[in-house]
Each structure stands twice: as structure tokens, then as C-alpha cells.
Amino acid sequence: MRRKYLSDHQMNQVIKLKQSGASWLKIEKMTSIPRRSARRAYDEWERSKSTDELKEARTDVAREEFRKHVSHLIGIAEFLVNGLGVPTWPTERRDSEEFLRQLWSKEDRTGYPSDERRTLRRNLMLFEALKNHSREKVRWQALEEWEEEWDRCVNVLPRLSQWAEQFMPNILDQMPQLKRRIDEAGINKVTRGALIVGVLAVIWNGILDGRPEEACDQIEAKELLAGETVVNFGDRAARASLTFTDGRTAEQVAKACAWAANNLCKGESAPLVQEALRVVSTMRKRQQELEDMLDPLVLTPLILRTRCDLCPA
Predict the structure, then answer these.
(1) In the prediction, which pLDDT does 189 show?
(2) 22, 55, 97, 183: most buried by Cβ count inside 10 Å?
(3) How far is 207 from 270, CA to CA, in rounded Å?
(4) Radius of gyration for the chain, computed over Cα atoms and rounded to the nearest angstrom
(5) What pTM did the predictor assign?
């Protein structure tokens, strides 16, 4: 027997009657459609409806997951450009590989609870996805160039430290009265090392500002209300400041440190300071280049018209 297919009008009648609670026998009497045909057509319609609803549900899930994916990629891009920068303290010794590894380990951009190892793995996966989406428009070589300059920078810093370590004893030898006061005050080796760190800090902040030759002007002795005097190496080097109970000694210490800072900028170590200036300038240019290329207004269209392995189906 040939299978009977219902017209759209007949199908609508069957659906309406069945959903109102009519039995298949009643539907047959009211529509003249054999109840077996009506029931078979209705069952097929219900299966089709379930499939369509499932497709729609899956589409909704994929849409939401893709929205999250885009948000994660924008977030990882902002996290990168905000995290690059330049060394903020002259004791920085991490190479670029270690710096970036620690950066990617700091925060899980997916929002899932995670330990450091999983955070690192997820962020690196997102970073690779970001590069896949943006490869045609973003010059990722800028990041490699930033890494090279970072490594040059952490090579310069210990050499600057060595020069400072040479200058301070020489200067103290030329200031015998100060050297005697320091000995009488019981200033130990740790404190003398802190003076070297202070000189380096003020020079480094001068390099970051593009004016290292003016760095020595930031070193000064300030009297505190408690009757003590602090040797200050500038606002950004507050942790290098040292406090003395003898104001005259503090003033002489500030003078010696300023002398050392001046020698670092203008003596035999001057080419090293100029190299540091160049490196810092290049790092900031590469960071700015990446920031411009990874701006959300630029990046979002790239993500929407490309795919990566993490894109929801």
C-alpha cells in the first residue's frame, strides 16, 4: 500500500486537534484522515520538532561559547601588553623566557579555578589561539624583538651594579671624614650595600625617565620629625632610603651617593648607561606597537573572520 502524505492544511489540522487532547479516532472522524496516517505524520513532526529544538539549543551554546572565546582572547591580549613593560628595579635578573612564564602563570584568563601549572598551560593555549587568529595582521616579531631587548637589559644591569660597587669605596676613600663617621657609626656591610642599591635605583629611574644625567639631583638628605635624617633616592626608590641619627653623616652620605651617581652617568660607565637608554626606548616602542595592533577595536574583527583550534564548532 502506498504511503499517504498529508498536505500542510491536513497536518495543521492534526496538530491542532491532537494538542487540544483529541483521540486518534476522533481526529479520523473530523478530518477523514486515516488515524494511522495521522499518527505517523504527527510522530514524525514531533521528532522533527525535537531535532530543530536541539539544533537551536546547540547553536545557542556555541554562540555563548564563542562569545566567551572572543572575550578570553581579548583578555589575554590586554594581559600581555599590560604586563610587558621594562624592568622597574635595577636588581632584575630574570631572562625574558622566565619573565613571560611567570606572567602567564599569574592569572587564569578562562575564569576556572586552577593551580599555577594549569594556569600557565591554559594561558599559553589562549596565546597560541590569539596568534592563529591574528597572524595575518599582527607583526608578532615585535614580541620577539621585545624579548631580545629585555635580555640585553638584564645583561646591562649587573654590569652597572659592578661599576657602582667600584665607585662607592673609591669615593669614600676620597672622603676620609665621612669614612671615619661611617666606621664610628657602625654602618655595616649590608648598609653599605644598600647605598649601592640606592645609587643604582636613582640612576635606573633616571634612565626610565630618559634623563639619567639628572639622577644625582634626586639624592638628598631630609630631616625627619623624630630627629633622624633620611637619605632619599627619589620617590620611586623609596625602599632604598636609609635613615641616620646623625644629620651631618646623612648629608655626607647623600653627597657621596650623588657623586657616585654622577660618575656612573659621565665616567667610563657612561656608554653602558646610554646602552640602557637605547634598550629601554626600544622595549617601550615594541610594547606600544603590540598595544596598537592588539587593541580590541582592531583585534575583534580579526577574531570574528578567522578560526583556531579552540573555536567552538
Answers:
(1) 52
(2) 22
(3) 12
(4) 36
(5) 0.73
